[in-house]
Amino acid sequence: QKEVEQDPGPLSVPEGAIVSLNCTYSNSAFQYFMWYRQYSRKGPELLMYTYSSGNKEDGRFTAQVDKSSKYISLFIRDSQPSDSATYLCAMSASSNYQLIWGAGTKLIIKP
Amino acid sequence: GAVVSQHPSRVICKSGTSVKIECRSLDFQATTMFWYRQFPKQSLMLMATSNEGSKATYEQGVEKDKFLINHASLTLSTLTVTSAHPEDSSFYICSARDAQGSEKLFFGSGTQLSVL
Which B residues 68-97 touch A at CB under 8 Å? Predict the structure, then answer.
């Protein structure tokens, strides 16, 4: 079993829909959780960063962490075609510790 | 956020040649940089951790004589793929933390290497 599980998709939704992306993990020591967005043939871009449990909102993006269930989510409201990309979750047990990556979910927003 | 610049963005070379990829932190000092490799439709695979002024730490299965890493300054790390072969063709990406103790990674734009 991988330490971080993420459905690779692709996930295809119509423009304007609410998108839910998820990762599950097995290591209860993880405390730092991140979501990255990667366009094709580009480096990943940090979207959201969360420490421990709880929610964090930034514009159309909301990140949720449920440590009791070892489950993290990224919600995208009012999705746009420009949101079409691969979204990777990443997490670590402590600062300066190696990030463990999910496989990435390919998201397609249809106009 | 912090900016990491990576060059070249794309390189095509003949088998047997060496290719150097540069990674620079533009507005911060990076004592540690990371080099990743990514195959199509797959996630990032950490190759090595580059430490300024010391030897790089390579992940299991990564040949250190094949992938030479030099981190000579606080803002520059280079990855040299020596005697490249077609199986080395891949997308290579560098990253750095914006400060010591930070868990946030900022990435370069990546280098697509194609070995003929």
Answer: 91, 93, 95, 97
